[in-house]
Specification:
Blueprint: H1 20-50, H2 54-90, H3 94-129, H4 134-149, H5 151-166, H6 171-194, H7 203-226, H8 243-275, H9 279-315, H10 319-355, H11 362-391, H12 396-418, E1 422-423, E2 426-427, H13 443-466
Antiparallel strand pairs: 1-2
Helix pairs in contact: 1-6, 1-9, 1-10, 2-3, 2-4, 2-5, 2-8, 2-9, 3-4, 3-5, 4-7, 5-7, 6-7, 8-12, 9-10, 9-11, 10-11, 11-13, 12-13
Length: 474
Amino acid sequence: MALEGDVGAGPAVDLTTGSIPRGVLSIALPMIGASIFHSIQSLVDMKFVAILGSSSIAAVGMAGQVMFTLIAAFMGLSTATVAMVSRAVGAGDEDRASHVAGQALTFAVILSVGVGGAGFLASPLIMRILGARPDVAELGMSYLYVVFSGMFFLMAAFILGGILRGAGDAVTPLLLGILTTVLNVILNPIFIFGSYGVPAMGVRGSAVATVLARFFSFAVGAWVLLGGRLRVKVRPADFVPNLGTMWRLVAIGVPSSVQMMIRSFMSLVLMSVVAQFGTLVVAAYTVGMRVRMLGLMPSFGFAGAAATMVGQNLGAGKPERSEKSAYTAAGMAVGVSICAASAFALFAPWLVAFFKDDPTVVPVGTRMLRITSVGIVMAPIGIIFGRSMNGAGDTTSPLVITLLALWGFQIPAAIWLSGIEAVWGVPIPLRSLFASVATGSETGIWYAMIAASALQAVICTAWFKVGRWKRKMV
């Protein structure tokens, strides 16, 4: 059964009994709220950076893709944390849940030092590999140096969120997300343009504001967690490294991390393909992707709810309820996504112009949003069934499916449909065979994104129905 809440904790929700739709919404709605605030923070960053020009937008877009790739290691750890904490909560083992939480935070510190240090040193090489032009590369490096230095504070929210959601508390992460967004909105103009004695830092200032906002948010979250006010009561002894627990976190988290890295590295390759059409197209793509992610945020909220309910109900010995929870979450997410996709298709020009009112950027961004809005309807299916399997501790199946859909299909399709001649100087094989369907423009990339979303949805649904995830032990 779910753990009872203490004073200051989010509302106690028993996810192993009662109405499944109500259980899904009790986790999904706060998660959606937290995701929306996170997206607002990202969009506010872009709004301020857009004032600096297209080169600055492109620099932040490329640097952002790098960070999404590196977030994979922490997302894998968060996935493992949700799986192990939720299973312990479902079984009524509060001590085990608290121990896993402490070990996850300790592991996050170790990862931050290694990933942040390596990334800091490799920043110039990274921007060169992405094909950034000299002015964009310089701006991108200034951004990366800051975010790599504050790596732990940028990523700690994922671990804290995984701990709390695994215990059935999605309200506290929402409150922390609101705090982060408010701080970021306040700090962004101060550090980007300079005021109150702070010098103007431009693109670098955007990164400084983000790191500082995350630092203060983490400080509050850690204070609450260590104070024993939440369902998971982490004690000092829980931070002492335990190789057995850390190995389980690694065993469950690595396939999820690899999956995220595959997805994120795919985004880097896609950015390299987009970059061949010029800085203005990169700027439009960057703005369009930020807006598109806002439409996908509800899906991630429902997916997080499905993962928690699957884990807790498997822990309570109720696999059928776990399965019904995933289907319920998927149905809700698709309904919300249809509304979001319709709004994006209708209001695309105004959405793009809000961030970059440039007559050369708006048409490209509008076309991208309108084409890819179809994929927003299909993407939730793959996202939710994949996360549901993750919540059961099965992180290998979603990894294989992602590899097939993105690298086996999306990247080749984007290259051939767009009609580019080479990537990173390597000629494209079989290019002549696809000349009749190549668009000769960036629109071919958008069509490839839609098709990949559909393919992943079909494969995930079919494999989820097989049900091997129900027998996964954590």
